[in-house]
Amino acid sequence: MVKQMTEMLKGTLEGIVLAILSVRPAYGYEITAWLRDQGFSGIAEGTVYALLIRIEQRGLVDVEKVPSQKGPPRKVYSLNAQGREYLDEFWKTWSFLAERLEQLREGGR
Amino acid sequence: MSDTEKGGFIAKVIGPKRRWRAYQARVRQLPENYRTAVAAFERYLNYCGGLVDATSAESLLEDLADLFERAAADGTPIREIVGDDPVEFIRALVANYEAGGYIAWERERLINAIERAEGEDTGEEKGTVR
Q1: Which of A42, B10, B81, B125 is deepest in the core (most CB within 10 A)?
Q2: What is the pTM of this model?
Q3: What are the chain B neighbours of A54 within 8 Å (beta carbons)?
């Protein structure tokens, strides 16, 4: 069950994080905490961090360094136009996948 | 070498050694268990990182330090940073820095070779995937 969740998340976490950022800008710790709250209890902050670096490199998000009371500045990520486009694509792919799986569950075709 | 070439103006002036020392100084400032974890990843990367490009390696280590500094300030436990599978975590992180390395080069070669092989297809109609 845990293993299955990890594998499925590998393909969808990017879309999930972009969707979170489409609501409002956030930093890594916040995103991880929210995911854990929502029941993705096994999610590691480092996994989210690696993903944030990737979507930053691919130009899907804008990054702003915001000073923190304690420790180094936080990197706050916000979805940009390219990111929104990418997210639209993600939802299309997701709908396709979800529909087909639902059909299968209801007994093929 | 490539470090000074690709690292931009600052890196040219202060040089890669300075950058490496700055990274080490940051790691020394971490709480002990966070430092131990970073050292473990550093060692692993030395042996199995697959990064030959010094600039990528430095960027990777600096981003790793960023993560642990921030997590230490937030009081995030080590296990919550790296997850159940530390190998998978570092693999995912390293994948972000492979662009300049030989791995990317070899991947591109593979893609090109398959495209050429595909072009050599003899008239037969392509089967539909399904």
Answers
A1: B81
A2: 0.81
A3: 95-96
ipTM: 0.87
Sheet containing A74-79, strands listed edge to edge, beginning at the edge strand earlier in sequence:
A26-27, A74-79, A61-66
Neighbours of A27 (CB within 10 A): 21
So what CATH class is A2-105?
mainly alpha
A81 by Cβ neighbours in 10 Å (0-12 / 13-18 / 19+) ranks as exposed
- CB-nearest partner of A46 from B81, B95, B96: B81
Question: pLDDT tens-digit profile of A62-100?
Answer: 999 999 999 899 999 999 999 999 999 999 999 999 999
Closest CA–CA distance from residue A54 to any residue of chain B (Å):
6
Whose CA is closest to B17, among B54, B51, B68? B54
Question: If you measure CA to CA, which chain A residue comes closest to B92?
Answer: A50
Domain map of chain A by residue range?
2-105
